[in-house]
Amino acid sequence: MPVAKIEPADSITGKEVPAPKVAIFSSRGPSIEYPTILKPDIAAPGVNILAAKQDGYVFNSGTSMATPHVAGVVALLKAQHPHWSHAALKSAIVTSASTKDEYGMPILAESLPRKVADPFDYGGGHINPNGAADPGLIYDIDPMDYNKFFACKIKKYEICNITTLPAYHLNLPSISIPELRHPIKVQREVTDVGEVDTLYQSSIQSPLGVQIDVEPPTLVFNATKKVNTFKVTMAPLWKVQGDYTFGSLTWYNEHHTKDPDSSPDHNPRFLCGCCVAMQKIT
After folding, report:
1. Quick count: other Cβ atoms within 10 Å of Cβ 242?
2. Domains of the chain with CATH codes
3. pLDDT at 154
4. What is the C-alpha to C-alpha distance for residues 27 and 17, in angstroms, rounded to an integer?
5. Alpha-carbon gap, residue 250 to 230, rounded angstroms
6. End-to-end CA distance of the chain
7. Which residues contact residue 107 at a Cβ distance below 8 angstroms, ignoring those fewer than 6 apart?
């Protein structure tokens, strides 16, 4: 007589690997044409993604798999915040991204040799939809500013006052300096989209060989003051030719604190994190 035995189910997943991780084929920065604009902006799932094709399904990898994830997040954010501009949506995604893997360790990048990922690998980090929905502060940009910085090439027949300022003066949630020969000061404007009556304090992690100062170190928002500006001064500490080094400027308030040991389910909210890339050249 046949005998059946019922046992608890086991999930077989194979060898555990840290995730997320930047794939070896993923495009890297810096931007060759515009090195003063940090690229890439964000990282998203793009390896072995189940995708539909004409006669069934297939696992695919690449930008074509990662892009729909970001597009979906943007659609959800736009539905929740219909008045946000494109720049505001991008800012929310970039500044809320995670730089830790599922074990709370720094995200790795597949390369030769393998290394800890940096902003030239993943931009702001791995996309975090829940964090992007409530970023606290956003960096917004007037569309006309793009046209000015790109010498009126976007809309040639539109009235435009050409500026000679480099693109790192755009109100982006990042700063990229390809040749830091002398102190440089940039200004950023942030808009409070979170709770009313909040106070944000700055926390600086300076790149190796670079001193960063922020003024003011504290931003105060209330019902009548929703926008604040701050200035960041970056100065080389020594004259030596070197590669890019990275740091960050993070704004915190009492409701959003950084926990270095946070698990993926409790990611710290890197409010307005400015990734700073600098190259020291004599």
Report:
1. 15
2. 21-279 (2.60.40.2310)
3. 60
4. 22
5. 12
6. 86
7. 20, 21, 22, 43, 98, 99, 100, 101, 116, 117, 121, 122, 125, 126
Q: CA geometry: angle at 31 spanning 27 and 36, to 5°?
A: 145
Q: What is the DSSP letter of 264?
A: G
Q: What percent of the chain has pLDDT over 70?
A: 81
Measured CA to CA, the distance from residue 31 to residue 22 in angstroms comes to 18
Task: Decide if pLDDT at 44 tops 80.
Answer: yes
Q: What is the pLDDT confidence band of residue 106, given thresholds at 50, 70 and 90?
A: very high
Least confident interval from 151-155, 174-178, 270-274: 270-274
- For 101, half-sphere exposure in the C-beta direction (CA atoms, 13 angstrom radius) is 15
pLDDT of residue 257 exceeding 80: no
Residue 269: both structure tokens together: 């909210």
Q: What is the pLDDT of residue 162?
A: 62
- Contact yes or no for 250/270 (Cβ under 8 A): yes
